[in-house]
Write a structure and sequence with these properties.
With about 160 residues, the chain is α+β, with helices and mostly antiparallel strands. It has helices spanning about 1-20, 115-120, and strands spanning about 30, 35-40, 45-50, 55-65, 70-75, 80-85, 90, 100-105, 110-115, 125-140, 145-155. The strands form two sheets. Strands 1, 5, 6, 7, 8, 10 and 11 form a seven-stranded antiparallel β-sheet that branches. A four-stranded antiparallel β-sheet has the order 2-3-4-9, with no helix packed on it. A hairpin with a 2-residue loop joins β6 (about 80-85) and β7. The chain is globular and about 70 Å long. Keywords: Signal. It comes from Planococcus faecalis. This is Lipoprotein.
Length: about 160
């Protein structure tokens, strides 16, 4: 009888530990699909989160071409910017200025932009889409315009 009780107890403990191991012990933010990237021509754009934290959402623009460095033209403060949507409604409307700002991108050295704190404060409970957009051209007379959007979705419960 004691052996049956011990065996039943062992099975019960095993089942409880298995169920506990299968439960979601993460925070209430689901970042499973947050990391995303796209490449066009000599440029790659990525969106990612450090440590699955909504306060550390980043985008990178990397020149991956053959030259050691290239000069680009872009509008605004950076060649890369964010759009944030909640339930398909744009939360941070704005506009970009004409491409007149010059920047140098070195081969395989990413330009890193983090989601501005004022935008992070918008992220309350809900379903979100973040779009990082690289909008630039080579700084040459025959320049090619690049617009590389990278979109990712996540939820905050």
């Amino acid at each position: 009888m004691r052996t049956k009780s011990l065996k039943a107890f062992s099975i019960l403990v095993f089942l409880l530990l298995t169920l506990w191991g299968c439960t979601d012990k993460s925070s209430s933010t689901n970042y499973n699909d947050l990391n995303s990237s796209d490449q066009k021509g000599d440029f790659k754009v990525e969106v990612f989160s450090k440590d699955n934290d909504k306060k550390s959402i980043y985008a990178t623009l990397t020149y991956i071409g053959e030259e050691e460095e290239v000069s680009i033209l872009h509008g605004g403060n950076e060649a890369l910017y964010f759009l944030i949507f909640k339930n398909e409604e744009l939360l941070n409307p704005g506009s970009r200025t004409d491409q007149g700002t010059k920047a140098i991108l070195k081969q395989n050295e990413p330009l890193i932009i983090n989601l501005d704190k004022s935008y992070q404060d918008l992220l309350k409970s809900g379903d979100y889409q973040i779009v990082a957009i690289a909008d630039m051209s080579y700084d040459t007379p025959e320049s090619t315009q690049y617009r590389i959007p990278v979109s990712t979705n996540f939820s905050i419960n």
